[in-house]
Amino acid sequence: MSLKKNILALREKKAMVQKGGGDAAIEKQIAMGKMTARERIVALLDPESFHEYDLFVQHEERNFGMDKKELAGDGVITGTGTIYGAPVCVYAQDFTVMGGSLGLKHARKITKIMDLALKLKVPCIGINDSGGARIQEGIGALAGYGEIFYRNTLASGVIPQISVILGPCAGGAVYSPALTDFVFVVENISKMFITGPNVIETVLGEKISQEALGGARVHAEITGNAHFYAESEKECFEQIKKLVSFLPWNNSQKAEAITPVAPTFKKNIEDIIPADPKQPYDVRDVIKVLVDKSDFFEVQELFAPNIVIGFGRMDGETVGFVANQPLYLAGVLDCDSSDKASRFIRYCDSFNIPIVTLEDMPGYLPGVDQEHDGVIRHGAKMLYAYSEATVPKMTVILRKAYGGGYIAMNSRHLGADFVFAWPSAEIAVMGPEGAANIIFRKEIMEAADQDAMRQEKVQEYIDKFANPYVAASKGYIDAVIEPSETRSLLLHALQVSQEKEDYRPAKKHGIPPF
Ligand code: HXC
Question: Would you say residue 116 lies in a domain?
């Protein structure tokens, strides 16, 4: 055959495989409101940047009629491309090919692109749309998932790993994402569960919808498995691109800085915190006053909203923010908020992203529920994450810094590099009412007018401890500052911390309170 004919034959062969599971399956996919796997890759990457590999890989399963089945690309598309010019490795499972189920060769395509990402030291993005382990392949499919999980773990903290859930994802198709850094979900499209409804019906005789088992909002709000929630696939891809723009390619670099733009949020920083210390406010307003262009990219916005985490830029450089949110539960620390924040702190530390902590919380949430849910174990993650982190760490105490929460929120004692406090800061073992009731119990009980005596003692405690000056007198705070100075002081602290080095004892790895 002449080269020309060979080229034509190649084009035909490629076009055949690129049709995935065929017209009927594609129509079904579109009818479900889903993009095809190929459309998704195009929507995610820079125009014309995608290059595909392993298009002609085939499964080798011979049982259960599989010997008669050819599966386009074995149900997964893999390749390289760019996002805003940054290189990425990507894979997208094709639900039109046997429900995107994962057999051994399908898995090996994924592990090959993961290995490439690790060697090239670039982010790896997985678009998951899969019924999990291909039932016909049995152990081969399980082996494939094991090999993916192993690589997810090896790559953790070395390259950014991003997962997108764009269909009903079961079993391994959710466990691999759970091992990655960020999980994206889309309303009505994303479903995540360990065991699919078909299997549940067969084994338990229970009929249950995919949505009820685990839809996008369930995982964005309740389980915390998802970090970003979108209304549409298009919005989801824009979110991924934005996230990638905040991250370095790998853990030996810093995220690329962009031209700084002054904050645009017009609120006066001094007017954000209400005069009454019991009144809530939105801590995101404080962040917006501090970050370039007032552009704050929140992570896990819907889960454990009593703590806010996310990325912003200061003087063009990526910074991670951890902030108590007085709008919810007074910004208290509990099991979920501790999990949420500590994982984010470890993420920032792995990828050389300085952390700014904004503090206003009454401590850890007391009560039987929290104790039995393991607030000791979960809360300890915060202590571990901040103590372990060696990136530049700054804290601004805005208002309440009580008890264990004071220590946990990146205090000087856990290795903070800079601790600033606004004059409204109250640093104490607990709130004035609780403290006065305990330490002056006898005087209050014996007083003729108990309420008057209680008020007097509360005021005495406020005057003594509910201010930043006691902590400042001991050097636990570096400066009591005016709110309007916060941005310039943080910019300065970041600037002088560029070459920060902080040593830790040599070890294989620590044992965090997982
Ligand atoms: C083989 C599968 C499959 C699977 C779906 N298909 N899942 N084939 N192995 N795991 C096939 C279907 O047979 C069907 O083929 C096509 O994909 C589309 O599936 P439907 O059921 O028609 O689609 P839908 O109604 O949308 O339901 C999707 C689903 C459901 C929720 C994913 O198919 C389901 O419950 N599948 C089983 C999920 C599961 O429990 N998997 C095992 C996970 S265990 P046809 O030819 O009819 O179009 C696992 C082990 C790893 O992953 C564990 C790691 C720790």
Answer: yes
